[in-house]
Amino acid sequence: MENVVIQKNMNTPIKKMLRKFFNKKTAPFFLLAPTFLYYVIFWMSPIIISIKEVFTDLDGEFSLFGNFRFLFSQETFTPALINTALFATISVLLQYVLALGLAILLNRRFKGQKLLMFLVMIPMAITPTAVAIIWKTGLISSGWINSILNVLHLNNDLIPFLGLRGIDAVLLIVMIDTWTVLPSVIIILIAGLGNIPKETKEAALIFGAGKYRVLRDITLPQLKPAIITSVILRMIAAVQVWAIVVMVMGFTNVPFLVERITYYVGPVSGLPYARKLAFTYSFITALIVFTATMIYFKVTKKGSALDGGTQK
Amino acid sequence: MSKFNPIEKTIFALIMSAVVIAVLVPLMFFLANAFSNGTEIYEYPKTPFFSLTVTVKVDYLEESNEYQVLMKNKSGDYINTINSSSGLMLSTYFEQYFSVYRTGEELLSDFEITKTEGPQEFTYYKNMWHNFKMFFQITSNADNALKNSIVVVFYTIIISLTLGSMSGYAMARYRFKAKDQISVFLLIVRMFPVVGISIPLAVILIRFNLFDTMIGLAILYSLPNIALTSWITSSIFIGISRELEEASLVFGANSFQTFIKITLPMALPALAASSMYAFLTAWNDTISALILTNENPTLALAVYQAIGDNTTNLQYAAAGSIILIIPALVFTFVVRKYVNQMWGSVSL
Amino acid sequence: MSFIELINLDKRYSAKGNLIVNQMNLKIEQGEFIVFLGPSGCGKTTTIRMISGLEDISGGDITVDGNSIVSLAPKDRGVSMIFQSYAVWPHMTVYENIAYPLRLKHMKKDERDVKVKLAAEKTNIGDYLTRYPSQLSGGQRQRVAVARAMVVEPKIFLMDEPLSNLDAMLRVSMRSELKNIHETLNATTIFVTHDQAEAMSLADRIVIMKDGIIQQIGTPKQVYYDCETVFVASFIGTPPANFFKVHLEEIKNQLHAKNELVDYILNDEERVLVKDYLNQEVIMGIRPENIEINTTKRVPEGFLFEAKADFVEPQGSHIIVIINQHNNVVKVSSPLLDLEPKTKIFLNVKEHRVMFFDPITEKRIRKV
User: Is residue B348 part of a domain?
Assistant: First the structure.
């Protein structure tokens, strides 16, 4: 009796055919195809539709500036633009100054550091709608902000926060936004600080720099890249603020870009031109954000880790 | 190396306390509001602590055969609330304005004693769940909204993780022509403002019959998340040495088995991080839900609609927000801790 | 009074933690090139950081010119340092990196410029002054670190494994450059390394450390030929010394050192040396180049053992013979270039060059 070794036939015709399709060269395309398809259908076509809408008037005729002219003539447009710009600038400035100071303080090890970090991160984890409610309960005339002021004898009147308009209102929104967002900025800056090699600071100490000199000449310059990229990201987010505005101030009282969008798809969506206005606003906002994003790319040339070409 | 003199130490302590206070005070007041009953919500000044009980002084008015109920507020004063002899009216009032659940008969028998002994104080426990109940009542569809939120989160995570990790793997492991362009494209999509897409997407969803569905919403939420997942997973796949996979192949596994048994388990932290972001996007968003749904809102949208821009009965909206907040908090902290444990800090 | 003195120096990281540096005592003269040598974790980097002021001390004192410096900040100690990672500042050009220490001393621009250019020239990076560190190779960055440390003309030069990250050829050429700079500046240099060849070629004196304790302080010759402990003998030298744990017995009026492998007869001098260890165990340490191979006959004087040459590794000018017998691995360095493996050989100790160590303390047994 012969011992016959039975070997699985690895090269059946079906397997051969499959291998023709699924090999090293084609595999990436198969893996990427679903994503690609997805984005074509659900990302590109909406953009195309949006562009079409923005450049046609109510009768469907092509109109390059018609919708824009209409938009600019709305009396809430200019305030919306100004408020959004003011808000983005002021909030980013304020947040970075505060966050930088706090990040430097929090960066050393001390008792209860973990607990403190946990606490500081809570506002960041709360849904924006909920944040709006938290502050609304404080901002109403009988709310807790006035209560605190009263109890501390700082003010005996009831400040009508919800009635604030103009720049005061913008500042109020800045304050609420800072409360929410500061933790995430602090965390980004702390991560950046952690990436600075300890020895660069020690070298400076050896050669004669005092603590504050080290901060100014060595730490902060090395932190600059992290600061710049996160500033741009924050501005992009700040331009899109709306929920807090609407829930605290109501519609139209303090216009913001995205607040207007919500307005036109929400309460007044029935009006004939509401749709056009919503589209045009979206277009402009998207354009602004997109420009900022492009600037961000220029600034961080080494952005993504997607170039697998440096595999060892 | 870092010696701090006492002055610096005190400044440090002061600043830290200020930060802690700034974070905790609004939260405490908020919680107090969420558990306030219908009368406490209008009190002024507010306190950051919520009480578990309500104290009333009841007086029997002989002329009208009614019980006069006076509520004791925080400063100890008595406020006129309701005069009634009807058990039903009293019970309804107690429930609505005091968050106290007690039947009419029970109240009447409690107050019986004031007929003979004069005015008496009664202390009742508030029902802490009252505001939550009311939230679900006054917000149409709130329980559906909760279900919807869970569903849409589920869909978003599945879509984002599947498509995202496939793309991430392709970008990490293979070399091919359009790679750079694709990675730039993914970055753009990741940062593109969703507002620009939501409105026209509604048109497309209508065409596919997906308007006002959770899948439709999930499709929108997944747009930036697929790109984000792709980025996260590709950097971890690059980290997983190719040789680990090659070893598996040499020892007899095929590509698919290798992927399931070797690559995927090592990529778990990346998947966890990606699902965290997918969750937060889907759970927290309000504006896209506003645009893309009609009768089927998500919880965030429902809470928003419950309040809109008015200021009455904030305590119900506050209670609803708590339901919104808790999963988000849990996810943010628990998943983040897990990710950090397995993977070191994720700097995204 | 020496220039730098470490007195009973201790270091621990937590109140009840282990002593990373344990009662270190060292006197360094001005102009010396001292090398701290030892394996990772022996405390050499910690010690140099304590001298620099980047770490606090837990006990003892450090003095310079008789004055204690432990309460001074790093910048007030008159030291200059080169770090293992170079620590050049990435956001400054090479010129600015070198100039920074001088700016901190408020030196005027013209004077600064002269010194910077001089330092850059001495380290051969004069052409790169306007570049940023990210545009330089590792070796060039290291030179920037050296130039920067030189430019303040320090009295004390601290170098923490500055060559460890360089490739082998660069390391050797930089070694001599560093020594050169030390001599030009007439500085006192403390150099930390784990590479014994580096220590041997650079040092005036070597301080060998293990687990926070000094094993031996000596010139290269001393630490090579006159080892104070088993550890020193095993750490210095490539290949390291061979060790035999032997029992001392008197047989027919001769003192034998025996174990399963060797049977060595001690001469008169050696007998006097180990007289306290009769009938006990000692450790013999013999360097590979001090063992002679005889392929034909057994020479009685200094005979060690006979064996088969298990492996022969040609090294060019000599061979290394490896014998693996009775669980002992013995390495011998020999000029017999044609020796074949598996040949039977007789091994003798040259000129009784044996070091004896106490089996428990592992310290060298010396003449009383």
Answer: no
